[in-house]
Amino acid sequence: MLYEICDRCDMKTTLLGTIPYEEFDYQTLLDAVRHYSQPRQKISRLLAQGAIVRVKKGIYVMGESQRRRTYSREILANLIYGPSYISLESALQHYGLTPELVPVITSVTTGRTRVFSTPVGTFTYKMISMTAFSIGIDRVELEDGRGYLIATPEKALADVLVADRGAGITSQKELYTHLLEDMRIDPNGLIELDPSALAEIATKYRSRRVKLLADLLSNLRHRRGVF
After folding, report:
1. What are the sequence ranges of the domains in the chain?
2. Rounded to whole angstroms, how far apart are CA atoms 54 and 75?
3. Residues 4-52: tens digit of each pLDDT
């Protein structure tokens, strides 16, 4: 068939050039090879050639030889397991609240806690309740018009505190020390957080520790950052 000649063509301008983004699902891929006599075998050949990479079942990225731009691990995080949005350490790093480099993309979900080790990195998902999940969500817009879901800075910090059940924190002073010394939270960024938003998140989580954080931030603002 005429379309089989494309095996010897520049796939960036022919076959894979019909896929607009570096991250795509199985249906998009199937549409791109629909004119082939054996589309599923064509997909297998593309995988074997490294022209595309399977991140997990049904989710792909362009292979290095076909890549036009860097793929978004944040978009992949939203796609791999859902419902979910980026939070915890990854979101804190995104907002510049912590200097720590986070090689793992961390998210929260209403599904089971999961870890996905993929050819493009590790993605972890922490289960939280639906009431806590539904608050504190933002959307980051990309230049191409797409976007991904991420926790607000207040929600990301609350998610970390709730997940860190081992820390026996009972006072604002202990919490402040934990945030700055153990978590290395930027004190200037910390004081910019909204205490009222954290108080609302605390009610959704029913968390005394998050409420303690809201009270701490109120005191920091009153004292102009001095504790």
Report:
1. 2-66, 73-222
2. 15
3. 444 545 555 567 889 999 999 999 999 999 989 999 999 999 999 999 9
